[in-house]
Specification:
With about 375 residues, the chain is α/β, with parallel strands linked by helices. It contains 14 helices and 13 strands. It has a seven-stranded mixed β-sheet, with helices on both faces. A four-stranded antiparallel β-sheet has the order 9-10-13-12. A hairpin with a 6-residue loop joins β9 (about 295-300) and β10. α4 runs parallel beside α11 (about 255-265). The longest helix is centred in the C-terminal third of the chain and has 23 residues, at about 270-290. The chain is globular and about 55 Å long. It binds 4'-deoxy-4'-aminopyridoxal-5'-phosphate.
């Protein structure tokens, strides 16, 4: 009997998966910059520089229920998020980060061979997750301003199962106008609108969920609420779709600790909104400073980061020169973003250190 090679057990579409290119963690950044972890200016993953809210920190310090399984029905979280979003609790599903909601929606809907329409450059997990499901990605590139091509996407969507759209988009920072989202919704696909950065944009397509059963809106506690390390995100959608995801999700997908911090953050919504306003102010401040540098062009952003065009051919060298100074931003090795860096908006002090390091990096690489 010839025995199977271990990789023969693996589904064909899993054998050559390209993993998500995650941001470098603080440990390796510190080592590279020759600084302590605390000294690293970490502007590479769009985290919230102010961290969790006071009530969330308090909840984390007193999470006495760690020995008890969390509520699979997510009653308390769905109720609190209903209050926050204006949607009904039955329309909400909470996940281990919004990454898990992407995973659940894609796995619930995609059979191998189903087409997903994507608008790159955009968040890398859509590609990864579609491929995990055996889906076929059809890319309709954004234009030179990183706006989506609505007609192109609608044409590509004929016979497709799913359209996925980040608004504001990561990494470009721009949002998609409501009318364009409605045009995408008028087709016969499920449309996933990822609003991870909505709180910095001040607008949302959430009010459309009741009008369009084919709309799924993704939100996260990672950015606005500063809980990226705890993993809590949610989807808002048609009740029947939410019910399907609730049945198919792992029962204890959101930990007690993440739940406690999510609930406490929502009680602190005013403080978190105020911090979001500070971040938006800082974003505009930083955009002004970047625009003054020769060869540097910041893209307009509605999010908590800025995509920045650099002098041609110098993206990687500038990224490295920044890293050597303990300043970490996001660099994209592939495609047309090779001359761009994405920098998260931090505190005013972090902006100062980033801008100073960028000036030096520009000189050094000239
Ligand atoms: N969507 C977008 C557009 C993102 O940029 C990110 C995080 N980088 C996510 C989703 C994932 O967020 P979460 O931490 O909730 O999994």
């Amino acid at each position: 009997m010839t025995r199977r090679n271990v990789l023969d057990f693996v589904q064909p579409h899993w054998r050559n998966l390209d993993p998500y290119e995650a941001a470098e963690p603080p440990e390796s950044l510190a080592e590279r910059g020759g600084v302590t972890e605390a000294e690293v200016v970490k502007l590479n993953a769009n985290e919230n520089p102010y961290g969790p809210s006071p009530k969330a920190l308090e909840a984390l310090n007193h999470s006495a229920r760690a020995h008890i399984y969390p509520d699979p029905g997510q009653v308390a979280m769905r109720r609190a998020l209903s209050h926050y979003t204006g949607a009904r609790p039955e329309q909400i599903v909470v996940g281990n980060g919004s990454d898990e909601i992407i995973d659940l929606v894609f796995r619930a809907t995609l059979s191998p061979g189903d087409v997903v329409v994507n608008a790159p450059p955009t968040f890398g997990m859509y590609d990864v997750t579609a491929h995990i499901c055996g889906g076929v990605i059809v890319e309709v590139e954004r234009d030179e301003h990183f706006d989506i091509d609505v007609d192109g996407m609608l044409t590509a969507a004929e016979g497709a199962k799913l359209i996925v759209l980040a608004s504001p988009n990561n990494p470009s920072g721009n949002g998609t106008p409501l009318e364009d989202v409605e045009r995408l919704l008028s087709g016969d696909c499920l449309v996933v609108v990822d609003e991870a950065y909505a709180e910095f944009a001040g607008r949302s397509v959430l009010p459309l969920v009741d009008k369009y059963p084919n709309l799924v809106v993704l939100r996260t506690m990672s950015k606005w609420a500063g809980l990226a390390g705890l993993r809590a995100g949610y989807g808002v959608m048609n009740e029947e779709m939410a019910e399907v995801l609730m049945r198919g999700k792992p029962p204890y997908n959101v930990s007690q600790v993440a739940e406690a911090a999510l609930l406490a953050s929502l009680e602190d919504a005013e403080i978190l909104d105020e911090r979001a306003r500070l971040i938006v102010q800082e974003r505009e401040q930083m955009a002004g400073l970047l625009a003054e540098m020769r060869g540097v062009e910041p893209m307009p952003s509605d999010a908590n980061f800025i995509l920045c065009r650099l002098p041609e051919g110098r993206g990687k060298a500038i990224y490295d020169a920044l890293a050597d100074r303990g300043v970490s931003v996001r660099y994209y090795s592939r495609g047309k973003l090779a001359d761009y860096l994405r920098v998260s908006v931090g505190t005013p002090e972090q902006t100062g250190r980033f801008v100073e390091a960028l000036r030096a990096a520009l000189q050094q690489t000239a």
